[in-house]
Each structure stands twice: as C-alpha cells, then as structure tokens.
Amino acid sequence: MIDWKNYRQELTGRIGEIGRLSPDTVRGYQTLAGGLSRVP
C-alpha cells in the first residue's frame, strides 16, 4: 500500500527541484493549467 503522506512530500520536493532548475517550465505549466480551468 502506498504511503500517501510520504508520496506527497516527495512529489512536492521534486516539483520544487524542477522549479529551481527550470522556473520557466513550471511557470508555463501553471499558465496552461490556469487557462484550461477557464475554458467553457
């Protein structure tokens, strides 16, 4: 069985790592994700 609390912590850490290495990639993803929520 997956330890979801630990999984979430690891995922958050990896996303932070990606953000430090390539901030434009994360910013672009956030822009796309935000735009998709406004599509009718």
The domain count comes to 1
Radius of gyration: 13 Å
Determine the fraction of residues in helical runs and give it as a percent range: over 70%
* Percent of residues in beta strands: under 5%
What letter string, H or E per element, gives the SSE order? HH
The count of strands amounts to 0
Largest sheet: none
Secondary-structure content class: mainly alpha
Would you identify the regions where 5 or more consecutive residues have pLDDT less than 50?
A: none
Tell me, rounded to a whole number, the average pLDDT: 88
Overall spatial form = flat
DSSP helical segment count: 2
Beginning-to-end CA distance, first to last residue: 38 Å
Description:
The chain has 40 residues and is an all-alpha fold. It has one domain (4-37). 80% of the residues lie in helices and 0% in strands. It contains 2 helices and no strands. It has helices spanning 4-21, 23-36. Helix 1 (4-21) packs across helix 2 (23-36). It is flat. The model has no long low-confidence stretch (mean pLDDT 88).
Please render the helix and strand layout as text.
Layout: H1 4-21, H2 23-36
In short:
The chain has helices spanning 4-21, 23-36. It is mostly helical and 40 residues long. The termini are far apart.
Note the main attributes of this structure.
40 residues, mainly alpha
